[in-house]
Every structure is written in C-alpha cells, then in structure tokens.
C-alpha cells in the first residue's frame, strides 16, 4: 500500500453544491462571454484532426488545379486527404455536438495552406499534407478546408486568400457564439517539403528517389538547397514573401520565410525526435525544412518579428484564443523567450492575459517538459515561457496503468508520481534547483503548473489509446482519469465512441489511428455518437467537473495504490481533490477485470490529506456521485486510530466518484 506523497496545500471546506443527474441529452449551455473569460484550467479541450472529423462540404475535396491522387473518397488510406473540413466542424457546432459532450475548447490541427503531396519519406508512396504540418503559406488557409458559401448560405467566399481567411474567421466566431474557444495548432520549427538539395547541380531532384530530399545531417548549411515550383501539389517557396493585406488589415511581414538562408539546411539526423544532444534543434525532419532559430543568427530578430506579425493577426483579426505550439524542444529555447514575450507585448495586456500558449514537448521527463514553462534566462526573469505543456509524463503513466499487453492492470504509481512532479517543491533529482514546472502566476493569474494538459492519446507515434487488445472499457477509464485529475483535460477526436484502431498495437509507434471519424455518407452525422456509452460517460463527467471545481482546480491527494501484499486491491487507484470553495471529491478506479477493493479489511483506506489531517469533518460521509447506480452501495466508514477510513468495493473496470458532505 502507498498512502501518498506530499503534494500541494490542503483545504477542506465543504461546498454547498448538491448532487443531481444530468438528463440524457441536456446541452451544457455556455455563453459567448464565458468562452473568452473562463480560466483556462476550467476548460475541456477536444483535439480534432480537421481532415478526419467530418466531410461537411464535398465540393472542396479536390480544389481546382490539385492532383487528383491526393484525395481518397473511401476514407481508408491514412496518407491521403479524407475530406474533413471546417464545414464539418461548423455543422457539429451548430448541432450542439460539442456542447452536449461538455467540450469548451476545440484544438484544431494547423489550418494553413500546406504542400499537398510528397513521396520522399514513404518509400515512394504518395503522402499528403492533410494533417496541416507541412506549411507552405503561413497566412493562407488550406482550400481543402474551406467552402464557397457560409454555413447559413447568406454569403459567398471568394477562391482567394481573403475568401478562405473569411471562412476561418466565421468558423471561430461561430464557435464563440456557442461558448467554445478555438486553439490553433501552429508550427514554428519547420516548413513543409518546399525545397530539395540539388546535389548533382541539374536543378531537378532525382526522379523516384529521396536522395536529394533527405540528406545526412551535417554541421554547416548545405548550399545546394533549391526551391521548386509545382503548383499542382502546392510545392512552392514558403509564403508570405512580403507585406500582405488580408480582410482589409495590413500585415507587415518581411518575407523572411521565403529566403533560403532562413533555413538550417543541415539535413536529417536519425532519431532526432527523441534526441537531446543539440542536433534535434538544427536538423530537418525527413523532408520537412528546419527553420534556423539560432539566437546568434543574423536573421534572429527579423524571424521572431515575422512570426509575431503572423500570429498576432490570427489573435487580433481572426479571433483565435490560443496556440498549441508544435515541436517545442526542436527550437532554441531563447527563441521561445523572444516569441512569447514579443507576441504578448504586441497584442496588449488584456488579450495576452486571455491567450493560451501550450507547447508540445515530446518527452516523458518532467525536467525537460517543465523547463519550457520557464524562460531560458531564469532566475533573472521569473516570467512564464509557455503557459502550459502537454503532460507526456502523465500520458505514459496512464498507459502503464491501463494499457498493458497482457490485459492485466499495471501499477498506478507512475500516475501518482506524475501528479507529485507538479508540486511547488524542488525535487532532489532536479539539477536546475527549482520545481519542475513554473509556479509563478502568468498574466492570467494561473501558474503553468496548474494548466498542464492531461491526455492519453494523440495523432503522433503514441497513437490511439484503443488499439488491438485494448477494450472500450479501458479506453473509458483513461478518459475518466483525464477528466477527474486536476489539470486541463484534452480528449482526442473519436474517443467518445471508443474509436478502435484495429491496425495499431501496444508498443510500436505508428500513425494508424488517424482514422476518419464520421463517414461522409451519414444522413444524421451527430446522432449515433450521442447514444454511445463513451459519449454519455464523458458528458456526465464533464458536467460533474463543472459542478465540483475541486476536480478541475483542486489539490491532488493520493489515497491508495494497489498493495503488493494482497491481490484484493490489484489495479486499484484512489485519490482525493480538495478546493476551498467546493466539496472534497474522492475518485476510485479499478483497472482490473475483476471486482476489487480500495483498502483492505485489515488495512482500510485512510481518508486523510498528506499532512495526516482528516478529509471528513464529524457528521460527514462519502456520498456516491458517479455512476448513478453507486447510490445503492453507500460506503460504511470505519475508523483507524481515530482517523476516518473505508474499504470500498469497486466493480470491474469502473470509476466511482464520491463527494464528502454531511450525512443526508
């Protein structure tokens, strides 16, 4: 038995909220004002690959001049476009789909214009930029995502930069009217496969070969880098190439991204995604072109200012609420200092306090994850760098606990450690002599340590949570923990129906989980999902999360991890969340396929905080909150040395939630 690690401060003031059951299809209404004024740690984020969600407009699947081979109408080849678009998301918003689910923010893959087709890192097979991470124009929207008319049919969108950007702006405004924030995925580390290395000097890449697209890493720039002009696949020099005016707003871009000298041109370093030797910030990713972000480069300030111009436009004119920043650890830390500081200054204090900057640091080490929540010149500057990062440490811990290849539960100890590593204490193994995560409040009054993203799956190599030999019940347990642990929950599209990647397996990295979600031929595209057990569970948990703020913003107190001395509690994990303005919540998870107990007959689970203080006041008890049928299993409290304790019986692969309140 592990009775917990000392974590954050403790408070235990009973709230006044009472238990109620959400009706089956009650939309969780949120006003437009709330969409921009909610604290970010009270959001529920839904991460959607736009091309894989729903094809709401079939007219844009093959834009004029596009090679026909880039689109798969059967929505089976994961390397081709599937047709999902902004219209598909708009129809879901209009239908109340996300509101019913309890989602308050949409994180969308990069919507910008991409290189459409490449064959240079896939054995000669066609691979497309459907995902949005192959940028060709940072200030245009991909025409395969936009429509010719507005959702209500009242206006047309021109087939131009202005027309496409207007549709994107309308999409953001629609989301806001439904109380939903929009987080735009952005890439500052690299552009798409926009140039090749002309090793033989013939001004053409080798046909049918990746030899001049993917070259070995070298210490100095390769001077043979050469732009291409292939409009049919949108393979052209990176844009913008100078100042532009969009929707009547002049944008003072310099065109530095269209200059070959702005790129590192050092080739590909094998294993760079997992590297930490310095090459990972200098090298290409396969045929994607690394942008040179060295602080001592002659173009550093101009490059930072260029990106500030670009992304200030998306905030000030388009209205996006936040940015998820790709490949953070592959960019020089000082670049992030300059970019985040100048962007916040540019948009002003009010907008800067509302803007959310969360980074993808693809690493499970909290020291590496957390360092980007600090500036590189800490402690001279104690301001935040990133507002948040995706908590890969917690992601891996959830998988260790719930996703073992033998089907048995793993240990929840690594979850407990991931939550402990967020605490405001200096860990013994942190040579930086600071907490892993920034504890100083940002401009919004919240410290980055309070705004980490809880997630269990994504679009990259870690793949979907539910692959072969992983059940729907296991997937729902992962979602339940994401929604009940303090932090910002981030759900991956399709998880609400336990979308199953039948090709994926536990262990190897793959992208096979990038499945089409709602088939294009569905007559009622958002009806069936609402009846699924996974959807209903998420809907109920998001409402409980809103009703009891301790789950979102409270302090975490581990109560029980399975004991090595008994098999009666194998796979059981229990914790409490406390917050002064809300009732204390107790969460118990049984990851076993058999009924287990939290606590043992001879060693009940103590209901105390990390200081040994009771979580219950005299006359209080545990009142079942989720699932509803738990009301028939009201726990019987025990006492151990005058400390409240309990033994809870939990059904197979179920999560039970209790509130601490006075006896009814």
Secondary structure layout:
Blueprint: H1 32-37, E1 45-48, H2 50-53, H3 86-94, H4 97-101, E2 105-108, E3 112-114, E4 117-118, E5 127-128, E6 135-141, H5 161-177, E7 181-186, E8 190-191, E9 195-197, E10 225-227, E11 244-246, E12 249-251, E13 289-290, H6 300-318, E14 322-325, H7 333-347, H8 349-354, E15 356-359, H9 366-371, E16 388-389, H10 392-402, H11 413-420, E17 453-454, H12 472-484, E18 488-492, H13 527-530, H14 533-547, H15 550-553, E19 555-561, E20 572-579, E21 582-590, E22 596-598, E23 605-606, E24 620-626, E25 637-640, E26 643-646, E27 648-650, E28 654-662
Parallel strand pairs: 1-2, 1-18, 2-7, 7-14, 14-15, 15-16, 17-18
Antiparallel strand pairs: 3-6, 4-5, 8-13, 9-10, 11-12, 19-20, 20-21, 21-28, 22-27, 23-26, 24-28, 25-26
Q: Which word captures the global form?
A: globular
Flag low-confidence runs. Answer: 1-27
Strand order of the largest sheet: 16-15-14-7-2-1-18-17
Helix content: 10-25%
CATH superfamily of the largest domain: Glycosidases
Residue share in β-strands? 15-25%
Word description of this protein:
The chain is of the alpha/beta class. The chain has two domains: 33-192 and 237-547, Glycosidases (TIM Barrel), CATH 3.20.20; 552-662, Golgi alpha-mannosidase II (Immunoglobulin-like, Sandwich), CATH 2.60.40.1180. It is 21% helix and 18% strand. The chain has 15 helices and 28 strands. Strands 16-15-14-7-2-1-18-17 form an eight-stranded parallel beta sheet, with helices on both faces. Helix 12 (472-484) links the parallel strand 17 (453-454) and strand 18. Helix 6 packs across helix 7 (333-347) and helix 10 (392-402) runs antiparallel to helix 11 (413-420). It is globular and about 80 Å long.
């Amino acid at each position: 038995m592990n009775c917990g690690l000392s974590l954050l401060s403790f408070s235990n003031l009973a709230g006044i909220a009472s238990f109620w059951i959400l009706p089956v299809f009650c939309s969780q209404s949120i006003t437009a004002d709330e969409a921009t004024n909610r604290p970010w740690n009270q959001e529920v984020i839904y991460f959607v690959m736009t091309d894989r969600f729903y094809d709401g407009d079939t007219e844009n699947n093959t834009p004029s001049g596009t090679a026909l081979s880039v689109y798969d109408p059967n929505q089976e080849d994961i390397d081709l476009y599937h047709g999902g678009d902004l219209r598909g998301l708009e129809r879901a918003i209009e239908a109340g789909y996300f509101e019913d689910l309890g989602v308050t923010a949409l994180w969308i893959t990069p919507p910008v214009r991409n290189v459409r087709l490449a064959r240079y890192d896939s054995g000669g097979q066609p691979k497309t930029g459907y995902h949005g991470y192959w940028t060709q124009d940072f200030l245009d929207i991909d025409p395969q995502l936009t429509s010719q008319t507005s959702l209500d049919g009242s206006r047309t969108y021109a087939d131009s930069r202005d027309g496409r950007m207007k549709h994107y702006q309308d999409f953001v405004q629609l989301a806001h009217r439904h109380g939903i924030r929009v987080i735009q995925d952005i890439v500052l580390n690299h552009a798409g496969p926009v140039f090749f290395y002309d090793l033989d000097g013939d001004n053409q890449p080798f046909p049918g070969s990746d030899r001049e697209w993917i070259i070995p890493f070298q210490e100095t720039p390769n001077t043979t880098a050469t732009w291409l002009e292939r409009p049919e696949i949108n393979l052209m020099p990176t844009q913008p190439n100078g100042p532009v005016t969009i929707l009547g707003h002049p944008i003072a871009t310099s065109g530095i991204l269209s200059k070959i000298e702005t790129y590192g041109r050092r080739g590909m370093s094998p294993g760079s995604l997992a590297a930490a030797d310095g090459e990972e910030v200098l090298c290409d990713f396969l045929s994607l072109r690394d942008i040179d972000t060295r602080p001592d480069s002659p173009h550093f300030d101009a490059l930072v200012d260029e990106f500030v111009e670009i992304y200030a436009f998306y905030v000030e004119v388009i209205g996006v609420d936040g940015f998820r920043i790709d490949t953070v650890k592959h960019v020089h830390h000082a670049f992030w200092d300059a970019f985040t500081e100048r962007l916040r200054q540019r948009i002003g204090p009010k907008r800067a306090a509302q803007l959310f900057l969360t980074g993808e640091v693809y690493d499970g080490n909290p020291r590496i994850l957390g360092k980007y929540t600090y500036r590189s010149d800490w402690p001279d500057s104690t301001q935040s760098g990133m507002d948040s990062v995706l908590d890969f440490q917690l992601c891996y811990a959830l998988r260790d606990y719930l996703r073992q290849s033998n089907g048995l539960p793993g240990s929840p100890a690594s979850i407990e450690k991931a939550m402990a590593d967020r605490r405001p204490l200096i860990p013994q193994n942190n040579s930086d002599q600071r907490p892993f995560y920034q504890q100083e409040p940002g401009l919004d009054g919240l410290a980055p340590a309070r705004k980490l993203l809880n997630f269990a799956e994504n679009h990259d190599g870690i793949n979907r949570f539910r692959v072969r030999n992983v059940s729907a019940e296991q997937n729902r347990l992962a979602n339940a923990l994401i929604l009940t642990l303090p932090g910002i929950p981030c759900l991956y599209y399709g998880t609400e129906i336990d979308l199953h990647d039948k090709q994926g397996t536990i262990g190897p990295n793959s992208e096979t989980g990038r499945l089409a979600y709602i088939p294009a031929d569905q007559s009622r595209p958002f009806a069936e999902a609402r009846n699924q057990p996974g959807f209903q569970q998420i809907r109920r948990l998001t409402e409980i999360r809103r009703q009891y703020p301790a789950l979102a913003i409270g302090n975490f107190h581990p109560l029980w991890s399975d004991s090595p001395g008994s098999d009666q509690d194998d796979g059981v994990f229990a914790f409490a969340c406390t917050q002064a303005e809300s009732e204390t919540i107790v969460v118990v998870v049984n990851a076993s396929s058999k009924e287990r107990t939290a606590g043992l007959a001879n060693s009940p689970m103590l209901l105390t905080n990390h200081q040994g203080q009771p979580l219950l006041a005299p006359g209080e008890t545990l009142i079942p909150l989720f699932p509803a049928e738990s009301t028939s299993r009201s726990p019987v409290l025990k006492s151990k040395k005058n400390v409240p304790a309990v033994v809870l019986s939990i059904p197979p692969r179920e999560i039970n939630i209790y509130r601490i309140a006075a006896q009814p």
